[in-house]
Write a structure and sequence with these properties.
mainly alpha
Length: 169
């Protein structure tokens, strides 16, 4: 049936009931409620900060070793054994960045948080990144790192033909 296809919200915030006041003349009982506070705009960053702070792999040391290759930097995550970024993962992130612009990272983390990443174009690639690298590693990706990967991946892989000197006419 069509009504069974509608997804119901997982959690509906109930207002806090402060008290009930019965009417003196057998009328309806008046219920006093405290209004629900709106969710702050920074809830995503606060949630990531909480996840990083409560991670069992969080390092107490503030000293980080310097890495020359940012694409294979395993210190970017709280979990030490995360694999290196593959070209396909980087292409997926670059494509997502082109679609959503400057706020691409917060949009992707929101999609991960609500489980909506699979409804995006190339959602399987985004879900693969979430499962393989994790949201904290995606959050640690810098603009310079993606720019470098985009330049490297955009260069066409042309086969070397010794007989061809210039473009054919």
């Amino acid at each position: 049936m069509a009504r069974d296809c509608v997804r119901h919200p997982r959690h509906v915030i109930q207002p806090l009931v402060i008290g009930r006041q019965p009417d003196l003349f057998d009328g309806p009982t008046v219920t006093h409620e405290r209004p629900v506070k709106p969710t702050p705009q920074t809830w995503g960053r606060d949630f990531l900060r909480y996840l990083r702070a409560t991670s069992p792999h969080a390092e107490s040391s503030t000293e980080q070793p310097k890495m020359t290759d940012k694409l294979h930097d395993h210190t970017m995550s709280n979990v030490p054994d995360k694999p290196a970024w593959t070209d396909e993962e980087l292409r997926t992130l670059i494509d997502f960045r082109h679609r959503y612009g400057r706020r691409w990272k917060s949009k992707l983390l929101d999609l991960y948080l609500f489980g909506k990443d699979d409804s995006e174009p190339n959602g399987a690639g985004l879900r693969h990144i979430r499962n393989r690298q994790g949201p904290s590693r995606v959050d640690a990706v810098t603009k310079a790192m993606l720019d470098e990967a985009e330049d490297r991946l955009a260069a066409p892989a042309r086969p070397h033909h010794p007989g061809l000197v210039g473009p054919s006419r």
